UniProtKB/TrEMBL annotation:
<dbReference type="Pfam" id="PF09594">
    <property type="entry name" value="GT87"/>
</dbReference>
<keyword id="KW-0812">Transmembrane</keyword>
<feature type="transmembrane region" description="Helical">
    <location>
        <begin position="199"/>
        <end position="219"/>
    </location>
</feature>
<dbReference type="InterPro" id="IPR018584">
    <property type="entry name" value="GT87"/>
</dbReference>
<dbReference type="GO" id="GO:0016758">
    <property type="term" value="F:hexosyltransferase activity"/>
</dbReference>
<keyword id="KW-0472">Membrane</keyword>
<feature type="transmembrane region" description="Helical">
    <location>
        <begin position="147"/>
        <end position="164"/>
    </location>
</feature>
<feature type="transmembrane region" description="Helical">
    <location>
        <begin position="290"/>
        <end position="310"/>
    </location>
</feature>
<comment type="similarity">
    <text>Belongs to the glycosyltransferase 87 family.</text>
</comment>
<feature type="transmembrane region" description="Helical">
    <location>
        <begin position="226"/>
        <end position="245"/>
    </location>
</feature>
<feature type="transmembrane region" description="Helical">
    <location>
        <begin position="331"/>
        <end position="349"/>
    </location>
</feature>
<keyword id="KW-1003">Cell membrane</keyword>
<keyword id="KW-0808">Transferase</keyword>
<keyword id="KW-1133">Transmembrane helix</keyword>
<feature type="transmembrane region" description="Helical">
    <location>
        <begin position="20"/>
        <end position="40"/>
    </location>
</feature>
<protein>
    <recommendedName>
        <fullName>Polyprenol-phosphate-mannose-dependent alpha-(1-2)-phosphatidylinositol mannoside mannosyltransferase</fullName>
    </recommendedName>
</protein>
<dbReference type="GO" id="GO:0005886">
    <property type="term" value="C:plasma membrane"/>
</dbReference>
Length: 422
């Protein structure tokens, strides 16, 4: 069952209305954040947190690339003092605070044009660019996926109200941008252009934690055009970045990635913010690393099995003459939930990726049936911090595990496109 679509002649007006509504909403969001959020409100006294949040380290990285010092991107002796140079960034904040340089060199090269703008002004340009993801998503849903205008507006409003998405904007994070890439990938896959979808997914080289699960699922489904296109796209981006950054910066970045375990032990990492399977198990095992890794291996195996069952990987196709099954909403539900749960480093704002689920399910015309899970995810993320403080564990991964178990149970009758009793 699929959602009814409007005639082609009516798509343009519908798309304009959806994009217009999303644009107005984006403007309101930018104004509210710029005037009320601590990370973006202008202050003359020393600040408690950095102006622009995480964007600070990205601007610093872009500045190093722009001035020809990209080999220093991952040198804390260079980047930390720059973050606290009031003459450079235009504000003072606690010397004990910092934002680690954790993105690939290609991202700092891409962001370098913004570093030519004075940092306080660049922050607001960055905020506007992030908020522009909302009308872009509206366009993808209306024009690319042909959802009704009411559905598009409702989903965009839901995204703005979704705590992780708003937290992402307030912290200067890029989660809405990555959601836009995933929705674009979904739209291209849905239209049968999986090679182009893989090419677009190559952009996720900039956010590697969002890569392995989808690539693994595509391999399991034998979507080789997607996999090869994604690999080629990522390799092209990395090669093109060498026009701006040295090869040594990539080797330094690999060292940063390899030291993720060390990063998790620093004061800059808060398990209260983590929303993955590891964060849930860490609350139960504490400092007992051997016990933690044993439980994580078992938990990861269960998650992988549930993902395969939810996505119907390996099942014979009785309703299609094709040798491979379609990438329906269950495939994307399993992939998104698996990406979040299995990631080694997944903060609350990264949960914005859950926004793909109502979009994928709406395309199958079963959004109302999945609404209890969508509401459960919304509530869990909203009360997560309070539950962590009072009960000591994050409820969000519990809800995500339950949702994955529900969609992975036999028989699955509450999922779009799934015949009763499978």
């Amino acid at each position: 069952m699929t959602a009814p679509t409007q005639p082609a002649a009516n798509r343009a007006p519908s798309t304009r209305r959806a994009v217009g509504a999303a644009t107005l909403l984006a403007i309101v969001v930018v104004c509210l954040i710029a005037t009320t959020a601590n990370n973006f409100r202008r202050e003359t006294a020393p600040r408690k947190s950095a102006l622009g949040g995480d964007f600070l380290q990205e601007w610093i990285g872009g500045r190093l690339v722009a001035r020809g010092d990209a080999e220093l991107l991952y040198d804390p002796a260079t980047t930390d003092p720059m973050q606290h140079d009031a003459a450079l960034v235009g504000f003072e904040w606690p010397e004990s605070e910092y934002y680690p340089m954790v993105y690939p060199p290609a991202w700092y090269a891409a962001i370098s044009p913004l570093s030519r703008i004075e940092y306080p002004s660049a922050c607001y340009v960055w905020l506007a660019l992030l908020a522009a993801s909302l009308p872009a998503l509206a366009w993808l849903m209306s024009r690319g996926l042909q959802l009704r205008t009411g559905q598009v507006v409702a989903i965009v409003i839901g995204l703005v109200l979704f705590p992780p998405a708003m937290q992402s904007l307030v912290m200067g994070q890029k989660s809405l941008l990555w959601l836009g890439v995933w929705v674009g990938v979904f739209a291209l896959c849905r239209s049968g252009r999986e090679g182009w979808a893989g090419t677009l997914f190559g952009l996720m080289l900039m956010k590697p934690i969002l890569v392995p699960v989808l690539i693994g699922m595509m391999i399991a489904r034998r979507r080789w055009s997607f996999v090869l296109a994604a690999a080629g796209s990522a390799a092209t981006i990395a090669a093109a970045s060498l026009l701006f950054v040295p090869v040594s910066s990539w080797s330094d970045y690999v060292g940063v990635v390899a030291g993720v375990g060390t990063y998790h032990q620093t004061a800059g990492y808060s398990t209260d913010l983590a929303q993955n399977l590891g964060a849930l198990l860490m609350t139960a095992t504490g400092p007992h690393r051997a016990v933690y890794w044993g439980l994580f291996a078992a938990g990861a195996a269960i998650v992988i099995v549930l993902m395969g069952r939810a996505a119907r990987i390996g099942e014979p196709q009785t309703d299609s003459p094709q040798s491979v099954s379609p990438l329906d909403d269950r495939f994307w539900i399993a992939t998104v939930l698996g990406t979040i749960l299995l990631s080694p480093h997944y903060f609350a704002y990264d949960l914005t990726l859950l926004g793909l689920l109502p979009i994928a399910i709406a395309c199958q015309g079963r959004l109302s049936e999945a609404m209890p899970w969508i509401v459960a995810c919304f509530v869990a993320t909203a009360i997560n911090d309070s539950i962590v403080q009072t009960l000591g564990f994050p409820p969000t991964p519990v809800v995500l595990l339950a949702m994955l178990a529900w969609y992975g149970r036999p028989p699955m009758t509450l999922v779009a496109g799934c015949p009763a009793g499978r």
